[in-house]
Design a protein that fits this description.
The chain contains 9 helices and 6 strands, in the order βαααααβαβααβαββ. It is of the alpha/beta class and 218 residues long. InterPro entries: HAD-like_hydrolase_sf, HAD-like_sf, HAD-SF_hydro_IA, HAD_sf.
């Protein structure tokens, strides 16, 4: 059980944690390969194979979620393509109820995301959840991705966190491992990041399947 009554700071990831990762997976695994195949006159299969190698080379870096970088790298208008399918952006069940509860209990609520600020803007406009946050911190503002300890060191100074009274929820185990090393006391792994995919079993952290599990202040 997470003792929400004792927690002062709640840090929440966006993609996969608050929002259904189906949008992102569909975008990078289907729409981008489709457009890349058309541009280079190759098959969808070949395009996807080439792109997965390119993605892998930049995983865990700032480039990984930098849509301006990918626009240059792939010679595609990535922001425009995201706008085309923004109707697929959805909030996970009970997220808004959880955010409302946190505000009622006067918790400090921060979004901490590797998402590019242009993507953050698209998603906050579509979902209207920005009003529940005291601040949104992006890795581009900090200069490091969440996978690196430097992200947490700088974020702690900006937000004046008390690590012993902080809860952090994310859908990426590697990011949670870095947060644990840094000293964040309460950590939850959000499963069912993509509502249309089955999760691989992970036992490194306590899991959160649905935000309704946190709606009772304990």
């Amino acid at each position: 059980m997470i003792p929400l009554r004792d927690i002062k700071f709640v840090l929440l990831d966006m993609d996969g944690t608050l929002l259904d990762k189906y949008f992102d997976d569909y975008f990078w695994e289907h729409l981008v390969p489709e457009k890349y195949a058309e541009k280079h006159h190759i098959t969808f299969g070949k395009a996807k194979e080439d792109l997965l190698l390119k993605y892998k080379a930049h995983e865990g870096t700032l480039n990984w979620t930098d849509i301006d970088f990918w626009s240059r790298e792939l010679k595609l208008d990535i922001p425009a393509l995201k706008e085309q399918i923004k109707h697929l952006i959805e909030i996970h069940p009970h997220v808004e109820d959880f955010l409302k509860m946190l505000k009622r209990h006067k918790k400090k609520v921060y979004m901490v995301t590797n998402a590019h600020y242009k993507v953050l803007d698209i998603k906050l406009k579509k979902t209207e959840i920005g009003k529940y946050f005291d601040r949104c911190i992006t890795s581009f503002e900090i200069g490091y991705p969440k996978e690196m300890i430097e992200f947490w060191e700088k974020t702690e100074k900006i937000l004046k966190l008390d690590k012993q009274k902080t809860l952090f929820i994310d859908d990426t185990p590697d990011i949670l491992k870095t947060a644990k090393t840094f000293g964040i006391k309460y950590l939850l792994l959000k499963t069912r990041a993509n509502s249309k995919k089955i999760d691989k079993p992970i036992n490194d952290f306590p899991i959160l399947k649905d935000f309704k599990e946190l709606l009772t202040l304990s």
